[in-house]
Amino acid sequence: MQLDLNLLAALDALLEEGSVAGAAARLHVTAPAMSRSLGRIRRTTGDQILVRTGRTMTPTPYAIAVREQVHQLLHQVQGVLAPSRELDLATLERTFTLRWHDSLVALSGPALLAAVREQAPGVRLRFVAESSVDTPELRRGEVDLEANANRPGAPDIRAENVGETRLVVVVRQGHPLTRVDAVTAQRYAAGEHVTVSRRGNFGSALDDALARLGLTRRVVATAPTEAAAFEFARGSDLLISVPEATTRSAVADLGLVALPLPLELPSAPVYLSWHQRYDTDQAHAWLRGLARTALAACGTA
Question: Considering only the top CATH level, what class is 5-81?
Answer without folding.
Answer: mainly alpha
